[in-house]
Design a protein that fits this description.
Layout (H helix, E strand, L loop, with lengths): L28 H8 L4 H14 L10 E7 L5 H13 L4 E8 L2 H12 L6 H17 L14 E4 L4 H10 L7 E4 L14 H7 L14 E5 L6 E5 L9 E3 L1 H19 L1 E2 L2 E2 L8 E5 L5 H9 L3 E4 L4 H8 L4 E5 L5 E5 L1 H17 L4 H15 L7 H15 L3 H5 L7 E7 L7 E3 L4 E4 L3 H9 L6 E6 L5 E7 L3 H19 L6
Parallel strand pairs: 1-2, 3-4, 3-5, 10-11, 10-12
Antiparallel strand pairs: 5-6, 6-7, 8-9, 12-13, 14-18, 15-16, 17-18
Pfam families: AMG1_II, AMG1_III, PGM_PMM_I, PGM_PMM_IV
EC number: 5.4.2.3
Enzyme class: isomerase
Length: 499
């Protein structure tokens, strides 16, 4: 996929999908870095040769491979995609297939579907999403109705590919009143003052939104449509917003799925003997707001923390029958195991043969529809948006009810320039510092001074800075804790510290 996601329009790059449709496996990342930086053609061939031997990859004659290519709306995408095609087609047995201008999640979905022997065109993608969405809407309990103003959704397309694709999709969804703004057709600039990254970090209305949107449910995608956040405009007097981030999207999904599993496990008023007890897990990083974690624990859910990065979250989620992960930035999805889906299909058929109108049968149908609506390859803003809309209608919730699910703890993020970021080694999903010795004890002393205080540090993956995260019961306390921990980082690792 030729894209630079939520970055400015002048940037570009690539995202590589595995044959599973997921992200490039972590084991191959050092190899990808090495070949991208090979100094000469000879060095490139040498690196590939060494890697083939190391991974014990056998070639018996010519092996065929199809490489699907897509790009977003950046002007530089066309020439970069052409270069990729030439490179791929120069390899014996490899065929580059240009899938056109796509969202990143669409390309991931196509790779996954193709390798599962399913139909994998863009039309098939739209068909699967729209049919699954309509199924969930048809299964909404009688009497669930949200206020008329809440029937409408206004979507910020970040002046990118997501707005363009939603315009196509909404023609298939007459049960979803949606207005698309910042679709890229009106002369706006990709990701500039618009998009999920801007809305989530700045917590202000994107361009094209304002006082006329007070009380209306709004959503924002990023430039390649793999992130989604919601927001509402609380008043005419300010451009500040009430943000509904990835943590709250995760909580909504978890609540709905837990409800369906509970219904499915009941037979009349009695619990049935479970021949299959689904393992349901929620995966978060240390950056998840503490209030969201507390809320999920109160629901009785199993919560696991991983290091920061979608690749870690996705890998952990795949360990469960149903695994949900989201980052606060709005990137996340739900994974269903093949074993669970096979059991669910069988259970659904059993219930259907008895009585199609039972709550258990409806719960099974809902879970099957969710497994088809959600993009199990990667976080997908379009797919996730449709699932949010279906669940809100199912619950009869306004966005304001959703916002009130729990109150976020105030937080602050800072970064501190250091001489060498690799001097910091973390453990326990980056929540604890192992080296340098002494700094974690000093951080713990600062945390203890604040009500509901929590703080951690981690090295940046790209620059010589240490990132500081802090949260507490008030914004003033969170700011103060972050500042104290930043000073400790400077003391232990700053340019003035002993090397």
């Amino acid at each position: 996929m030729i894209t630079a996601s939520h970055n400015k329009v002048s940037d570009n790059g690539i995202k590589v999908a595995d044959p599973s449709g997921g992200m490039l496996t972590q084991d191959w990342e050092p190899f990808a870095d090495a070949i991208a930086n090979a100094a000469t053609p000879e060095h490139l061939v040498q690196l590939i040769d060494e890697f083939v031997k190391k991974e014990n990859i056998h070639f018996h004659g010519v092996r065929s491979a199809e490489i699907l290519l897509g790009r977003d709306t950046r002007p530089s995408g066309e020439s970069l995609l052409e270069a990729a095609k030439q490179g791929i087609n120069s390899i014996v047995g490899a065929l580059a297939i240009d899938m056109g201008i796509l969202t990143t999640p669409q390309l991931h979905w196509m790779v996954r579907a193709r390798n599962k022997g399913m139909k994998a065109t863009e039309v098939d993608y739209y068909e699967q999403l729209s049919v699954s969405f309509r199924c969930l809407i048809d299964l909404i309990p009688n009497g669930q109705k949200i206020h008329e103003i809440e029937d409408k959704l206004v979507m910020d397309g970040a002046n990118g590919i997501g707005g363009e694709k939603m315009e196509v999709l909404k023609k298939m969804l007459d049960c979803l009143p949606i207005e698309v703004r910042n679709s890229g057709k009106g002369g706006g600039i990709l990701n500039e003052g618009v998009g999920a990254d801007y809305v989530q970090k700045e917590k202000v209305v994107p361009q094209g939104f304002g006082f006329k949107d007070v009380g209306i449910r709004c959503a924002s995608l990023d430039g390649d449509a793999d992130r989604l956040v919601y927001f509402s405009v609380p008043s005419c007097d300010s451009n500040m917003i009430d943000l509904v981030d990835g943590d709250k999207i995760l909580s909504l999904f978890a609540l709905f799925i837990k409800e369906q599993l509970s219904v499915l496990s009941m037979d009349g008023n009695e619990k049935i003997s479970d021949d299959y007890r689904a393992r349901f897990g929620v995966i978060q990083t240390a950056y998840a707001n503490g209030a969201s974690t507390d809320y999920l624990k109160q629901l009785g859910l199993e919560i696991v923390f991983t290091p920061t990065g979608v690749k870690y979250l996705h890998e952990q989620a795949a360990q469960y029958d149903i695994g949900i992960y989201f980052e606060a930035n709005g990137h996340g999805t739900i994974l269903f195991s093949e074993c669970f889906l096979s059991w669910l299909e069988t259970r659904c058929n059993e219930l259907s043969s008895k009585n199609q109108d039972t709550e258990q049968h409806k719960a099974a149908l809902r879970l099957l529809a969710v497994s088809k609506l959600i993009n199990q390859a990667v976080g997908d803003a379009l797919s996730n948006l449709l699932l949010v809309e279906a669940i809100l209608q199912h619950m009869g919730w306004s966005i304001h009810k959703w916002v009130e699910l729990y109150q976020d703890l105030p937080s602050r993020q800072l970064k501190v320039k250091v001489a060498d970021r690799t001097a910091v080694v973390t453990a326990n999903a980056e929540t604890m510092v192992v080296t340098p010795p002494g700094i974690q004890d000093a951080i713990n002393v600062e945390i203890a001074k604040y009500t509901r205080g929590r703080s951690f540090i981690r090295p940046s993956g790209t620059e010589d800075v240490i990132r500081v995260y802090a949260e507490a019961s008030t914004q003033e306390a969170a700011d103060s804790l972050a500042s104290s921990v930043a000073k400790l980082v400077d003391q232990f690792l700053g340019f003035g510290s002993p090397r």
